[in-house]
Write a structure and sequence with these properties.
This protein has about 300 residues and is α/β, with parallel strands linked by helices. It folds into 2 domains: about 10-165, Rossmann fold; about 175-300, Orthogonal Bundle (N-(1-d-carboxylethyl)-l-norvaline Dehydrogenase, domain 2), CATH 1.10.1040. It has 11 helices and 8 strands. Strand 4 (about 70-75), helix 4 and strand 5 (about 95-100) form a beta-alpha-beta unit. Helix 7 crosses helix 8 (about 205-235) and helix 9 (about 245-260) packs antiparallel against helix 10. It is elongated and about 65 Å long. The structure holds NADP nicotinamide-adenine-dinucleotide phosphate. Its EC number is 1.1.-.-.
């Protein structure tokens, strides 16, 4: 399929397939930026407000995709993509699908093959913000797949936020999505667990949040991770300022404190077990970041 050169972003028509909370936000942001916007949803009633603002509701998904050079698909999952877009196919010059639902890299590869069989230019993507932040220039959107497809539509995609192209492998966007969401859940669980622990002594969450999030995390955790990241690539874990053995001791104290206070101890016990695994693998004298080796070598066990 031949890709047409970028058109001025505001003039470029866009189609949005899928009008859940995220699809509605995508369409609204595009309309705010002046894009002529066509929408389609399995349940067409959800388009009512957008239509009142000037969006065009397509009578069929094939009509919707034909209406614009770029179609953003934002459905529940990959199965919904195949179900909804089954009728769409055949090469159509300059048209591209950007699939923004979440899933796994394998699912993204299968969807890229599915699109290639139909002669449809395809990018996979991931949205790293909640619906109210769509359209904000700082909101990160991740894309992967053929570079020329991204380049042809980058100006239009910029209307949604900060577009990051990750590479030709179509699975990269959802892989980053899984990694970043895993980081988000682990961080939230860490904060919530810590808050429950001090809460066992009546400390208000708001008071603890100021100490933990505004003071402790930026100086002790965030700065260390950015500074130490090159050592992860190099597999270099000097233990001169603190060893894994010392950290195992700290994790043991956290688990025992939870038990004393009647707070869930499963989370610190899991971390203690990971540190113990690293020691069993020969990292007793390494610093704590050597648990990276436990994570990345799981498939070798
Ligand atoms: N909401 C967020 O905060 C957020 C943030 C980042 C990424 N995302 C991702 O964005 C995608 C959409 O999320 P969402 O929040 O808008 O809601 P959602 O509940 O994940 O998806 C709702 C959309 O999927 C459609 N759908 C579901 N099954 C379908 C099928 N078999 N055939 C056709 N359409 C089908 C729904 O159509 P009907 O209206 O007809 O039911 C609706 O348009 C998800 O993959 C989600 O992971 C969401």
């Amino acid at each position: 399929m031949t890709q047409q050169p970028s058109t001025p972003a505001q003039n470029s028509p866009v189609t949005v397939v899928g009008l859940g909370p995220m699809g509605l936000a995508l369409a609204a942001a595009l309309m705010d930026k002046g894009h002529p916007t066509t929408v389609w949803n399995r349940t067409p009633e959800k388009a009512r407000d957008l239509v009142a603002r000037g969006a065009r509701l397509a009578p069929s998904v094939a009509d919707a995709v034909a209406a614009s050079p770029l179609t953003l698909v934002c459905l529940k999952d990959y199965a919904a993509l195949y179900e909804a877009l089954g009728p769409v196919g055949g090469p159509s010059a300059g048209r591209a699908l950007v699939n923004l639902n979440s899933g796994t890299p394998k699912e993204a590869h299968a969807a890229a093959s599915w699109a290639a069989e139909r002669g449809v230019a395809y990018l996979d993507g991931a949205i790293m913000v909640p619906p109210p932040l769509v359209g904000d220039p700082g909101s990160v959107f991740l894309y992967s797949g053929p570079r020329e497809v991204f380049d042809a539509h980058r100006d239009t995609l910029a209307s949604l936020g900060d577009s990051r192209y990750l590479g030709a492998d179509p699975g990269l966007a959802v892989l980053h999505n899984a990694a970043l969401l895993g980081l988000m859940y682990a961080t939230m669980n860490g904060f919530l667990h810590a808050t429950a622990l001090v809460g066992s002594a009546g400390v208000p969450a708001a008071e603890f949040a100021d100490l933990a999030v505004n003071r402790f995390l930026p100086t002790v955790v965030d700065a260390t991770l950015v500074e130490q990241a090159p050592n992860l690539d190099a597999g270099h874990y000097p233990g001169d300022l603190g060893t894994m053995e010392m950290n195992l001791n700290a994790l043991e104290h956290i688990a025992r404190t939870c038990e004393e206070r009647g707070v869930y101890a499963g989370q610190p016990r899991l971390m203690r077990d990971i540190a113990a695994r690293a020691i069993a693998d020969g990292h007793g004298g390494s610093n704590y970041l050597a648990v990276f080796e436990v994570f990345r070598k799981a498939a070798e066990r």
